[in-house]
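Risk mitigation, structural track. In case the binding assays with glycinamide ribonucleotide fail to produce interpretable data, a predicted complex structure has been prepared as a fallback.
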Amino acid sequence: MLKIAVLVSGGGTNLQAIIDAIDNHKLTGVTIELVVSNKDDAYALTRANDHGITGICIRPKDYADKDAYGRYLAEFLKDHEIDLVVLAGFLVVLPECFIDEFENRIINIHPSLIPSFCGDGFYGLKVHEAALARGVKVTGATVHYVDKGCDTGPIIMQKAVYVEPGDTPEILQRRVMEQAEWVILPQAIQNIANRQIR
Ligand code: GAR
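Fallback model:
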């Protein structure tokens, strides 16, 4: 059984996609051991609670600095024997000490086709605003391993989504989630659980 911790900051629709995939037996051999948020009002924590999953808020501002936060978080996840850390809309950049502890065992979902619209400052709705401003006709989502850079780790899976005339950032965000993110995040976790990815 692959024990995962899902790290979140907001609504948690990607967390929900993982929960649903497990409930529907589309994602097997995987258990969500923990949901960790950096914000105590994240709706994702309610989703965890509703499904009997331990949800906890660990805030960077409660620690002396980013490293102290990263060390605490890493120890906490190690205490729970977490095999894989899934960043699902987690908007804190994790410090190097955390990455070292979970090297090659952290994945992230990003709402664009990396290397487009990624890196520092590209998160959430901002990604879709930038895609529309550039006038791209195809966008999508990417699941990748997390390394010490920002959205620079090895790509695991991508799915393309068409931009439609009249799209707003909100409409495009929703389509990218429905058609790409909620599909490829559970698939990538399944592939890791099946040891199809090294
Ligand atoms: C998702 O679109 C995810 O790809 C994005 O935040 C949203 C979280 O939604 N992540 C990033 O932008 C990371 N750079 P959710 O809380 O409903 O899953």
